[in-house]
Specification:
Number of helices: 10
Bound molecules: pantoate
Number of strands: 9
Shape: globular
């Protein structure tokens, strides 16, 4: 497994044989089973697999957790080696944003609601770094988790609009046995908060059950999630949404697929989760 922080070394490894397909999973490290599922699929579906580990400052707001974001490079590298990854790119800020850097990728529209409104500038940071990573690694396929549903919508739009020749592959959310979506930020939770954090999945599951029972009013689905979160004393709701998964416009009445999503604070830890309901009709 080649580990490098240098762009030219990534390109050299990637283009040793232009006939080989490369799967790529961009990450911010502190890897969990969700990341490893992406990596394993990248490995299965391609001749070679690459992973980047980079905590991207451009996607964190000034009051957010950039400084405390969990890091575990040695452990991550051991896990990636075990998973059979061929190339790991571990750039620093000087490599990604050298002096004089001025460019931003801004995906209008789908970057605005939900996470985009709660975290201004977040998706500009994500789109910019992923565009750079795509240009550096030049993968055949790129792997992202459904856990960050809006991120997948923004990045698909970006790849399409900017003609990146990359196939976007979205993998299901990896969950703990009690339903909590795996996230590096779960490591911030105290034991009490960890127990309360199941409220996200409980709220989504309750709305999903209401949908299965025939409920199609967007307001009613959002109210089910809101009420479930309100019943958890340690949780504070940021937003709930029942939206069109392509446009992220809130459904008045669901007509097609429905992305149920929410963001919840447990004290200062902010968690997100979602369930995508496919239209069965
Ligand atoms: O999902 C993440 O971990 C990050 O947003 C990503 C895609 C690696 C960009 O920094």
């Amino acid at each position: 497994m080649k580990i490098t922080s240098k762009i030219e070394e990534v390109r050299a490894v990637r283009w040793v044989d232009a006939a080989l397909s490369w799967g790529f999973a961009p990450t911010m490290g502190y890897l969990h089973e969700g990341h490893l599922a992406l990596v394993r699929l990248a490995k299965t579906e391609n001749d070679r697999a690459a992973v980047s580990i980079y905590v991207n400052p451009a996607q964190f707001g000034p009051q957010e957790d950039l400084a405390s974001y969990p890091r575990s490079l040695e452990r991550d590298l051991a896990l990636l080696r075990e998973a059979g990854v061929d190339l790991v790119f571990t750039p620093d800020d000087g490599v990604m944003y050298p002096a004089g850097f001025q460019t931003k990728v801004w995906v209008e529209g789908v970057s605005r609601p939900l996470e985009g409104s709660a975290r201004p500038g977040h998706f500009d940071g994500v789109a910019t770094v992923v565009a750079k990573l795509f240009n550096i690694v030049q993968p055949t396929r790129a792997y992202f988790g459904q856990k960050d549903a809006q991120q997948t919508v923004v990045l698909r739009r970006m790849a399409l609009d900017l003609n990146f020749p990359v196939e976007m592959v979205i993998c299901p959310t990896a969950r703990e046995p009690d339903g909590l979506a795996m996230s590096s930020r779960n490591s911030y939770l105290t034991p009490d908060q960890r127990a309360a954090a199941t409220v996200l999945y409980r709220a989504l599951s309750a709305a999903q059950a209401a949908f299965a029972a025939g409920e199609r009013r967007g307001d009613a689905l959002r109210a089910v999630m809101r009420d479930t979160v309100a019943a958890e004393p340690l949780a504070r709701l940021d937003y709930v949404s029942a939206a069109n998964p392509l446009t992220l416009a809130e459904w008045d009445r669901v007509e097609g697929d429905c992305l149920l999503s929410l963001a919840v604070f447990l004290d200062r830890v902010r968690l997100i989760d979602n369930i995508l309901i496919k239209d069965a009709s």
